Amino acid sequence: MKLTKRDIKAARYERSDGGRCVLWDSLLPGFGLRIYPSGRKAFILSYRAAGVKRMMTIGTYGVLTLDQGRDSARQKLAQVIGGADPLAEKQKAARGATMKTLCADYIERHAKPFKKSWEADELRLNRQIVPVWGARQVISITRADVADLFHDIGKTKAHYEANRVIAVLGKMFECAIAWGYLPDNAANPARKIKKYPEHKRDRWVTPEEMPKLIAAINGEPNIYIRSAFWLYLFTGLRRGELLNLKREQIDWARAELNLPDTKSGRPFTAPLSGPAMAILRGIPEEEGNPYLFPGRRTERPLVELKMAWQRIRIAAGVPDVRIHDLRRTVGSWLAQAGNSLHLIGRVLNHANPTSTAIYARFANDTVRQALEEHGRRLLAATEDPAAKVIQLRQGAK
After folding, report:
1. b/e for 16-46, b at 16 or more Cβ within 10 A?
2. d(CA 308, CA 18)
3. Which pLDDT tens digit goes with each residue over 200-228?
4. Which fold has domain 5-84?
C-alpha cells in the first residue's frame, strides 16, 4: 500500500531542523512519517514514558506499508500504556549486548537473589556458554544454535548436564526479554528443545557396605572431615547446610540445629540424636572462626569435601557412592526401619509444598526418636560402637 495524496492531505505537516519534515497521522496520535532532505522516508512514533518525551523510528517507508507502520505503532503504544519504554528496549538491543554480559547480569540479578544453587548456574554458564558464545550478541542466538549446543554436550553422554544447561538458558532468555536485551515479542530460543530422558538416582549405602564405609571415615586424620561425614549419616543434612553450620546454631539444651536459610526457602529446626550430639561435642573450636567446620581462609567455612570423599569411597570399596547419596542413605534406612514417608520428609526437610503441611504435624520429639533409632543402627554396623565415637574426639585437626 502506497502513501497516497489523500493520506498526505489528511496528515499534519511539521517542518523540523535540518530540512527534515514530519507528516503526522490524523488517525493515530504520535504516529508520523519523517521525510529527510535526501528523500528517504521513515515511520516514526512520538510518545511519553515516565514523563519523558521519546521519539523512535519504526521502519523505512517502502519496506513497511502505511498500514503495517500504523499496526507497529499501535503495538508499541500498547507497551507504553503497560509501563514499558519501546525506545529504551530497542536502544539496549542495538548496543549489541553480548552473551557474556547477559550471563553476568543473570547471575547478579536473578540467580543470586532467587536461587540457592546459583553457584551451579554460574559454573555451567562459565564452562558451557561463555567460551562458545561469549562474544556473540544476545539477539543473534537462534534456536538452531541452542539445539546444536545441546547436541554437542549430550553426544558425550552428558545428558544430565545438557538438560541443566538448557534449563538455565531457558530462564536466562526469559530474563533477557524482561530486561530489554531482546524485544518483547522475541521467541525464547531455548524453548521447545526436547530434553534427554533422566533416570532418578537411587544409590544408597547398604547395611553390608556400611562397616567398611565407617572404617574408611574413621581412617581420615582430619577430625573436621571425619565429623562432617558422620553428621551427614546421622542427620541427612544437605552439603551446604552442613558445611555452613555455625556454633551459634546449635541448641545444646534442646538438642537441635537451627537452620535459618535452607534450600526449601524456609527456616528449619533439625532435631539431633544422641550420637549426633556426641559428634558435635567432640569437634574442636577454632578461635576466631564461628563455623563448626572451619576452612583454610580466616573466618570462612570448609568449602569442599570431594578429595576426602574420593579417598573414603575408594577405601570403602564403594566408588560409585556420591556425597549426596549419604543423605539418600538416611532416608532409605529410616524407611527400612518402618518410618512413614511423611516423617522421612520431615527429617530431610523436603520442599514439596503438598506434603509440607503434613510434615508440620510431626513433633520434634517424634523425629528425634526416629533419628535415635537410626543412629543406633548406624553404630551397630561397627564392631565397637563406643570406641568409634570416642575416636572422633581425638586425632589431629
Report:
1. eeeeeebbbbeeeebbbbbbeeeeeebbbbe
2. 74
3. 667 888 889 999 999 999 999 999 999 99
4. Double Stranded RNA Binding Domain (3.30.160)
